[in-house]
Amino acid sequence: MRLMKSLGVCALMVSVAACTTSPTGRSQLLMMNDQELDQMGAQAFQQYQQELPSVNGAPLEYVQCITRNIVAVLPPEERDQNWQVKVFKSDDANAFALPGGYVGVNTGLLKVATNQDQVATVIGHEIGHVLAHHANERASTQGLTQLGMSVGGSLLGAGGGAGSDAAMAAMGMGAQYGILLPFSRSHESEADTIGLDLMANAGFDPRASIDLWHNMAASGGGQPPEWMSTHPSNSGRISGLEAHMSEAMALYQQAQAAGRVPQCKAPSA
């Protein structure tokens, strides 16, 4: 009876997923509400501030200027949030945006992204994750995967023995490499596309995204095989950006004609 109930919950989850789509039209499974996600974002942002020292002055003003220009072209419900921006002292070339309106950029990224347009590439990408509800989708997908494995374990456990243990281990590997990691690569590629449009619409040159990922490739060393990674390869990322560049350039030209010409001053080295 418990197994039939679990299967019924799985079916309900899948039916809900079919009714939801991302900004690019991709089907999504979203099971958490915005209030829960905003709270999680606030907690994560607070934790990050406890782990790394913040940087003020010119670096913060620079990142705030870039973020402000991108936020200005967001849909009203996202644009009107009280966006908080921090720069953290860390050599990791990394950045993030969280549900609830939080943006963090590491100083290491400002060494790899050499101008405002390249920094806007990353901030647009990270805000793209928020617009596409990727945190919600990841949590929902992981929950459904765990439920499916629990149901599968109940079925396999009926037989017992070493064969069941091996089958469960195989299910775990399949979930990791066949569901969760490819899903994450899908998120990254989608955020690249959304972010390219955001930066272009804000008046940042989308062609700088290609330069950024060449810089990332030069500074990042070796990469794991793409099928074992949560991110697309640098070359795959560049190909995806190039495929969408004509649409982004049209947005960029419209933004320039409308007077959206950001002038964010980079901090001196």
Instruction: Determine the fraction of residues in helical runs and give it as a percent range.
Output: 55-70%
Order of helices and strands: HEEHEHHEEEHHHHHHH
- How would you characterize the largest beta sheet? 4 strands, mixed
End-to-end separation in angstroms reads 66 Å
Q: Mean of residue pLDDT?
A: 79
For the record, the count of structural domains works out to 1
Q: Biggest sheet, strands in spatial order?
A: 3-4-6-5
Q: What's the alpha carbon Rg, rounded to whole Å?
A: 21 Å
Give the helix tally. Answer: 11
State the secondary-structure class: alpha+beta
Secondary structure: number of strands: 6
Record keyword descriptors for this entry:
single chain; 269 residues; alpha+beta; 4-stranded mixed sheet; two-stranded antiparallel ribbon; disordered N terminus; Mito/Outer_Membr_Metalloprot; metalloendopeptidase activity; protease
Give a structural overview:
The protein has 269 residues and is of the alpha+beta class. It has one domain. The protein contains eleven helices and six strands. The strands form two sheets. It has a four-stranded mixed β-sheet with strand order 3-4-6-5, with helices on both faces. Strands 1-2 form a two-stranded antiparallel ribbon. The radius of gyration is 21 Å and the shape is globular. The termini are far apart. Mean pLDDT is 79; it is low at 1-11, 13-18, 151-156, 173-182 and 224-228.
